[in-house]
Specification:
There is one protein chain. The relative contact order is 0.16. This protein is mostly helical and 145 residues long. It has five helices and two strands, in the order ββααααα.
Length: 145
C-alpha cells in the first residue's frame, strides 16, 4: 500500500470533499486507514491550504480559484434549473472544461446524473469505471481507493 493516493492509480474522487467556501477536506465516509492516507495526500499536494492554514501562501491561489469556480457553477446550476435545455447543458460542460476544477462541478451538480455523466465524459483521462450507474465514485478496479 502506498502512503498517498495517486490519481492515475486510485479513485481520488472518493478521497476528498470540496466545500462551498473553497476548502478541501478528507472525505469523512472513508475508513480510518483511508482517511489517514487521504490526509497525507492532501498535505503533500497542499490542496487543503486556505487563508488561516499554517502553510498557506498568498502565491497559492488555488483556494480563491476554487471559490470563484464554485460560485460560477452554482449560478449555472440555478440557470439550468430555470431553463433546462440540451444546449444549456452543453454550454455548462464547455464552461467547466475551460474553468477546470472538475471535482467542484461534480460536487455542485451531484444531484443531476445527466450532468455528472457529461462531466465524466468531457474531461479526458477521467476513469469511466470509477463511478456507479448514478455517477457516484466507487473504488477504482485494481486501485487502493
Amino acid at each position: 500500500m502506498s502512503d498517498y493516493y495517486w490519481s492515475d492509480r486510485d479513485n481520488t474522487a472518493r478521497a476528498f470533499e470540496y466545500l462551498e467556501n473553497g476548502n478541501v477536506c478528507v472525505n469523512p465516509s472513508l475508513n480510518e486507514s483511508e482517511q489517514k492516507q487521504a490526509q497525507r495526500t492532501l498535505e503533500l499536494i497542499g490542496l487543503g491550504r486556505f487563508p488561516g492554514h499554517p502553510k498557506f501562501s498568498p502565491r497559492d491561489n488555488r483556494w480563491s480559484q476554487r471559490l470563484d469556480t464554485w460560485g460560477i457553477a452554482k449560478r449555472k446550476l440555478k440557470q439550468l434549473q430555470e431553463n433546462d435545455t440540451p444546449d444549456k447543458r452543453d454550454d455548462i460542460v464547455e464552461l467547466a472544461q475551460a474553468k477546470g476544477f472538475w471535482s467542484l462541478w461534480m460536487t455542485v451538480f451531484r444531484e443531476d446524473t445527466d450532468m455528472l455523466k457529461r462531466f465524466i465524459n468531457a474531461f479526458l483521462g477521467t476513469c469511466q469505471t470509477c463511478f456507479n450507474d448514478q455517477f457516484q465514485p466507487i473504488p477504482r478496479p485494481g486501485g487502493a481507493l
